[in-house]
Specification:
The structure is a single chain. This protein is of the alpha+beta class. The protein is 43% helix and 30% strand. It has five helices and six strands, in the order H-H-H-E-E-H-E-E-E-E-H. The protein has a six-stranded mixed β-sheet with strand order 2-1-6-5-4-3. The longest helix is centred in the first third of the chain and has 37 residues, at 3-39. The two termini are 12 Å apart.
């Protein structure tokens, strides 16, 4: 293995982990401040995401990603919704209508499970695990038959009762390694 490959293999996951820790740390700080305010007799800060917003995200995971139903996307997302990916790409509401069926054609058993939730003023953070088996023809590559399990962190911002914007950090290196692409 070349020195460049070793550096890429070792440092990329370390940098991704450090970035994820910084983002979560900042949002946990906001959450601790909100909880402290409430403990000292304050009221719940305006805009704190709650049970209804979490249920909306869980519904999106279960019905759209896990079951392939894209019909509710217009109901759950604002018309100008944007997902900011870690590689600089953005996906709008209509992009999900293409991406979900494409990924599910590559991974018919694709599932997303929320492992942890953090709620902060106006936002929800979800730490999730993606799982699937590469048995389909999507993504422009031959099916490997390999399974994958990758972690991701999503930050969701709401406007009213809809998701308005989100940010994603996905372990794409681990995903590619498990599929045998690297």
């Amino acid at each position: 293995m070349s020195q460049k490959s070793i550096v890429r293999t070792i440092w990329r996951p370390v940098l991704v982990s450090a970035l994820l820790a910084a983002v979560v740390g900042a949002l946990v700080g906001a959450l601790v401040g909100a909880v402290a305010s409430m403990a000292l007799g304050g009221s719940e800060p305006e805009g704190v995401a709650g049970a209804a917003e979490r249920a909306l995200i869980e519904r999106f995971y279960e019905e759209s990603w896990n079951n392939g139903d894209i019909s509710l996307i217009d109901e759950l997302f604002t018309t100008d919704y944007v997902l900011h990916m870690q590689d600089g790409r953005t996906i709008g509401r209509d992009g999900f209508k293409i991406e979900i069926p494409e990924l599910r054609s590559s991974f018919p058993d694709l599932s997303i499970t929320a492992d942890e939730w953090i709620m902060a003023p106006g936002k929800i953070i979800a730490r999730v695990t993606w799982r699937g088996t590469h048995t389909g023809q999507g993504l422009g590559i031959q099916p490997s038959g390999n399974t994958f399990e990758s972690s991701a962190i999503y930050i969701y911002r709401f406007e009213g009762d809809r998701i308005a914007e989100s940010w994603a950090m996905f372990d794409s290196l681990g995903f590619r390694q498990q599929l045998g692409l690297l």
